[in-house]
Amino acid sequence: MTRYFPASIQSVAPDSVAARAGIMPGDVLLALNGLPLRDVIDAHLLASVPRLSFLLERNGRRIRLPAQRRYGEPLGLEFVEDLFDAPLRVCRNNCDFCFVAQMAPGLRSPLYVKDDDYRLSFLHGNYISLTNLAPSDWERIIEQFLSPLYVSVHATMPEVRVGLMHNPHAGEIMTQLQRLVEAGIQIHTQAVVVPERNDGACLDRTIADLAGLYPGVRSLCVVPVGLTRWHNPALCPFTAAEATATLEQTLAHQERLRRTLGTGFVYPSDEWFLRSGQVIPSLSDYDDLLPALVENGVGMVRLFMEEWTSTCANLEALGGAKQTWVTGTLFAPLLRNYAQDFRRVTGIAAEVIAVPNHAFGETVTVTGLLSGVDILAALAEADLGEVIVVPEVIFRGPGAQTLDGFSAHGLSERLGRPVYLWGAAPLVD
Q1: Separation of CA 335 from chain center
Q2: How many domains does the chain have?
Q3: Are 147 and 288 part of one and the same domain?
Q4: DSSP bridge pairs for 428
Q5: Are 165 and 159 in contact (CB under 8 A)?
Q6: In this structure, what is the dihedral angle of CA atoms 179, 99, 225, 372, given to the nearest 10 degrees?
Q7: Which residues contact 212 (CB under 8 A, 6 or more apart)?
């Protein structure tokens, strides 16, 4: 059944135009300047004029509130949902490597939704396929200049992309990207690379084709396929040798494009570097694109390294004779080096607990996909310090929960110790 969310207002920023108008949390915004709203994008665009008229529903009654907006002043409204009267656009593809299709059972229900909505791509950087856009969607993207967008390309060779996504319309990707570029829309792209499917010469072609659309296509992230215990048995993960070869192939393109375009353009995700043991790129190698690409696993390690001095001070402020730091198995070896540095600088011992991912399978090694159950199981066998530090990236969505519904407070109660979120500055419990 299609779910619709009215424009319910969650909070009102103090001293904003909405606050001066008298709008209150719990109100429902029905129209702005006489026009109905499809989503939060419409709300902010319609609020860009000096004179505003809000039509609201409050306690079952309709009221109209006028307001005068100062130049450059934000609307000041936070909504319960980003989408109002239009349903979420879901994915029409059937990708062999779709991570949603590989989800473990028993997780939070939103994780099983195959989001492919261009509005959430514009608002939050979600990657979309462009295979489910109606003519009216194309018109709106161009008319409202929804830029940048984030697009999952995977392969530019039509027959390869169709084969990967099992959608006959998937082969139109280069024509679609060209249309967006000609309209002035900037695009960040990604290629999830699968051994013997879209790697090797196919990856060469994908990089070359997309670089040919620069600067409209601003970047390409190259990400290794992630396979859980529920993956398509026809697929296999990269071996260490294959991962190293693909990384070197991608970096060779980056070096060439830096000479010809003045930018690296193509960026391998951190997993390639950590698996192959190669040096993490410098901050300048990301061409001022961080943190825009971080959600794709690109540059997270570099940002951690750049912020280590302040992170170290925040960790020291937590005190204790010993701290316990939680991470995934991929990042643990590097983090242990920082734990040694932390003890040398502060005198506080820190033990790094690498949590095996039993929920998805131990081939899933990244930190952001750890479940609360796996964290608790790993810590049950450890000699815990006075405080436990868990990466903030583990907690997502409304209420900041793990994939299986644990909050930091819930973990703290189960462990009998304070749990602090790593990634917040200063660290908070």
Answers
A1: 22
A2: 3
A3: yes
A4: 421
A5: no
A6: 130
A7: none
Check if the beta carbon of residue 261 is closer than 8 Å to that of residue 211.
yes
What is the four-CA torsion angle of 75, 77, 78, 80, rounded to 10 degrees? -130
The residue count of the chain comes to 429
User: What are 325's strand-pairing partners?
Assistant: 352, 389
Interatomic CA distance for residues 374 and 357, integer angstroms = 6
Q: Are residues 16 and 75 in the same domain?
A: yes
Question: Could you give the maximum distance between any two Cα atoms of the chain, in Å?
Answer: 66
Q: Which residues does the chain have with pLDDT short of 50?
A: 1-4, 425-426
**In DSSP terms, which residues pair with 32 in a beta bridge?**
35, 54
Q: Which domain holds residue 37?
A: 9-79
Dihedral sign computed on CA atoms, order 292, 293, 299, 304: positive
Is 43 within 8 Å of 79 (Cβ atoms)?
yes
Verdict on whether the full-model pTM lies above 0.90: yes
Do residues 137 and 222 share a domain?
yes
Q: What is the pLDDT of residues 161-193, one digit of tens each?
A: 999 999 999 999 999 999 999 999 999 999 999
Which of 1, 9, 142, 150 lies closest to 84 in space, CA to CA?
Answer: 9
Q: Containing H/E element for 35?
A: strand 35-36
Question: What does the block give as tokens for 168?
Answer: 């006959």
CATH assignment at residue 33: 2.30.42.10
123 near 41, Cβ under 8 Å? yes
Q: Establish if 346 belongs to a structural domain.
A: yes
Q: What is the DSSP letter of 237?
A: P
